[in-house]
Every structure is written in structure tokens, then in C-alpha cells.
Amino acid sequence: MTILSLTSVSKSFGALKVTDDVSFDVAKGQALGIIGPNGAGKSTLFNLITGNILADKGTVTFDGRDVTRVSPMQRCLMGVGRSFQIPQPFSNLTVFENLVVAASYGSGLSERAVTDVCADVLERCELIDRANQTAGSLSLLGRKRLELARAMATQPKLLLLDEIAGGLTEGECQALVATIRRLHGEGMTIIWIEHVLHALNSVVERLLVLDFGRVIGLGEPAAIMASREVREIYLGIEV
Known about the structure:
By secondary structure, this protein is of the alpha/beta class. The chain has helices at 42-50, 72-78, 95-106, 111-124, 140-153, 170-185, 197-201, 221-225, 228-233; strands at 2-13, 16-27, 31-35, 57-62, 65-66, 80-82, 158-162, 189-193, 206-211, 214-219. It has a 6-stranded mixed beta sheet with strand order 6-7-8-3-9-10. The longest helix has 16 residues, at 170-185. The model has no long low-confidence stretch (mean pLDDT 94).
């Protein structure tokens, strides 16, 4: 069953076309990785999926509904959850309070249900021992986990991860990837933008490659990384 479908989606800022006739589907329960050089249009693609920017052309369909013109808030309530590349928690609130805010406004759950949801997310994102710690006092790994947890607190059907492993040490990266792999194993549908390829490839079933807003490859990770065009454009290897 397809949960997300983009059909001929394009977006320009003035004369600059940042998304050029992009089409792809994501099946429920699948993990899709997105790679590409800086400026390829990866974050713009996420913004088109979440509704933070609207497509000039094409259609975005989520969970069987055309959401091309639907607001970011409504898409969140429908089940599109997102982490951001640079974590920006409410620094003076505790970890648990940050999750309560996310769940209260992003999930549509009743006030009574929010507490149980947040407690569950704390466990699943390995933050239970940091629940009463202020977000501003967390390590980088802790803030990355909190960014993941805040997205999970909205009760997403589709989880978008934007370079969540960036800046971490190898050990920290492995620990975070283990959490993401477990969430995916529980059935979470994921689209993940990442430059740390070994982390990405340990989770995703498919890779999509962007270059100047165009899709230049989509398929199994091993086949995509063996592609001549991908190696030349993304890896900078002349073949």
C-alpha cells in the first residue's frame, strides 16, 4: 500500500528550479533514503512533503488524499512527522515537557492520552533517564534523540529525518541508527536525508538520488551506489 506519492512535482524560486518534475512513491512500512550533493534540492523536497512550501506543479498524495495545497499543520495532524537538521528544542523545558508540547499540538490526541504517548516515546527513543533534564543541557546525541522523539510524539504515519546523524561521533551515530532501525522494524515508514551513507544504508531498502532538483536514480542501495552517474555526480568519482 502506497502511503506517499509525488507526481511530476516542480518548484522554482525565481529563475532557479529547485525541484524538477520529481515523481516517486513510498510504500507503507518502507524506509527510503535520499542522497545528493549540497544544493541538490533535498531539504526543499522535504518542505514540499510537509507543506512548508507549496509545489508550482504536480501532486502530493498522502495516505490516499491529495495534500498538495494542505497546510503543514494539517499534514502533521494527518501523520506527517519531521525532524530538523539542527535541533531546536524548547531549551528551558524538560525533555518530557518538550514531548508533551509536540504531542499536544501535533497529534490531535486528547490531553489524557498525551502523557501515555510521551512516556512510550521516551522509552522507544532511549530518553527515559533524561525525562526531567532540561533540553538545553543535553549532549548533541541527546538533542538528536529529542529531535527524533518530538517527531515521534506527533504519532506519525510517515517519519521524515533530515540529516539526523550529522555531527555525531561514530559511536554516537551507531547508537542513534540502532534506535532508528528498531523504529523501522516496528513498522514505521521513514524517508531519511543523510550524508552518512553507511548509517543510511544500514536502514533503508531504497535510495533516491537528487541532482539539481532532478531524480537521477531510484532503487536498491547497492545498485544505486554502483551506478556510473551516481558515482560521478554524488561521489565525485570520474568513471
